[in-house]
Every structure is written in structure tokens, then in C-alpha cells.
Amino acid sequence: PGYGDSPPAKTVATQRGRVAFLERVMQQLGLRRPVLVSPSMSGRFALPFLLARGEQLAGFVAIAPVGARDHAAAQYSEVQTPTLILYGDRDTGLGQQSLQSLRHLPRHRVVVLPGAGHACYIDKPEDFHRALLGFLGELQ
């Protein structure tokens, strides 16, 4: 809500509101301990949720998410959610920027996809899916 062609929504204007929004989505879908996959702009929702409610997730997949620099290293260091940090080596902006913050997550692994840009899942779908499925297979 509030991005792309969707109308603005006051309920998601704050980080607290975005966390509450994702909690409602999970409740309405009946999801228990899902893996949250966060490419690009979804980081504005997913990262605050990870920091506030990471224990509700079985895992987190960060694909060059927006907003990683909005949070302190100390906040990330407290999160125990297994995390896959994934980006393309041609994404020299957001991919590397988000890594600088997300590397403070204690249970993370980094996969850099050679020859892929910001939308690495489009540029290198087979490599992306191999990394994603490998990570998912390691979760309990």
C-alpha cells in the first residue's frame, strides 16, 4: 500500500503501521512462521517487521531491500532469524548498500549472483532459485 499504483494509506505511514499491516496479512492468511522474502521496495515493510517480530519468521530473504540503512547495527545484531542476503553483482548501489547494514544480522549468509543486476531474480532466475531453495532446505 502506498507504492506503485496503489493509493496512499495512512495506516502504513509509519514503521509501526507497516509492522501491524504485515501482522494482519499473516493472521488473515493463517501463516505460522513463514519465510519473508523482501525484494527492493518491500524492505520498507519487511525490515521493520524483521526487527520487531523476527521471532515470528522461520527465515528472511533480503534481496537488496530498500531501507536497510534506516536501522542501526545494534538492532540487526539482536535478530536471530536465519537470513539469506541475496543480490546481483551488477547491483552496485542498493545491493552493496543493504549488505553493509544487513551483515550485522548474526545468522546470515550472503549469495552474490554473477552477471545479475538489481532484479537478480529476473536476470538469473535459475541461480536465484537454486540459492533460495538451498536456503529454504536448511531451515527447520
TrEMBL record:
Organism classification: Eukaryota, Metazoa, Chordata, Craniata, Vertebrata
Main location: cytoplasm
Protein name: ABHEA protein
Subcellular location: Cytoplasm
Keyword entries, A-Z: Cytoplasm
Family annotation (InterPro entries): AB_hydrolase_fold
GO cellular component, one term: cytoplasm
Record organism: Penelope pileata
